[in-house]
Amino acid sequence: MSKIEARVALVTGGTRGIGESISRGLARDGAKVVAVCNSHRDHAMEFAEKVKAEEGYDIDIRQGNVGNPADCQRIVDEIAADYGRLDYLVNNAGIVRDRTAVKMQLLDFDQVMKVNLYGPFFMAKAALPHFFDAGFGRIVNISSFVGETGRVGQANYAASKSGLFGLTKTLALETAGKGITVNCVIPGAIETEMSGSLPPEILQAVIDMVPMKAMGTGDDIAAAVRFFCSDEAKYVTGALLPVAGGLLMM
Ligand SMILES: NC(=O)c1ccc[n+]([C@@H]2O[C@H](COP(=O)([O-])OP(=O)(O)OC[C@H]3O[C@@H](n4cnc5c(N)ncnc54)[C@H](OP(=O)(O)O)[C@@H]3O)[C@@H](O)[C@H]2O)c1
Q1: Fewer CB within 10 Å of terminal CB in the chain, N or C?
Q2: Contact at 8 Å (CB) between 9 and 32?
Q3: What's the topology of domain 8-190+217-243?
Q4: Residue ranges per domain, the chain?
Q5: Whose CA is nearest to atom 47 of ligand 1?
């Protein structure tokens, strides 16, 4: 894939887990990465220092809640003021608040929808005017296989993640032919800190579900994001791409 020098990338939740791999991958491709954290600013600053020490890239950290439209607008405005451009928006931040539907509190449903679905909408709404002005832009939404399959205890999470399919396709239609693409990556079971702390039998049950009999990595997801952001992917929009070891066949 071609170098993407001078492009500016906004990665929500870009400071840990899958988001860390996306931030590192886009920075390696030559983009200036602005990673958004929310409640763990100290961790985010340590991450930026680690990347600088290990790879030599400066990752710019901004703090804000993607579930708050004012925060999304502020972050995009700051990037436009500081860099004079915004090229890529990667909506990766996501949370879970698991309970079966009968026990789920309205707040659990509300918070998950706010971060996982409203957040990408708020961010896209703030970023799109810049993309239209520039005649270029890339939006990549990070969904989950659970948005396709559903999962016990995750009514809120599954609804938010399948909501991203409709959001992706609609934004793709509204921006088609204007140099802007909107696509969605659907991760399967991915190795993260969280999966590392699962009991071995649960982890094995997850692996057994996957046709490839292995979990994916953050770098597997980052590779798909990097493709969607690349100039080579200019004719790809409204796509939902499972990166799931065969767990989903669309
Ligand atoms: N891990 C998997 O197996 C898997 C599978 C399918 C899909 N996914 C999806 O992939 C994405 C990343 O997952 P992950 O496991 O890497 O997540 P993670 O390790 O839990 O990290 C979540 C990131 O999102 C940020 N964040 C949380 N709430 C936020 C908010 N309100 N505003 C802004 N940032 C916020 C966090 O920042 P702070 O720490 O600073 O709060 C953190 O950087 C999520 O959308 C998830 O649903 C993951």
Answers
A1: C
A2: yes
A3: Rossmann fold (3.40.50)
A4: 8-190+217-243
A5: 94
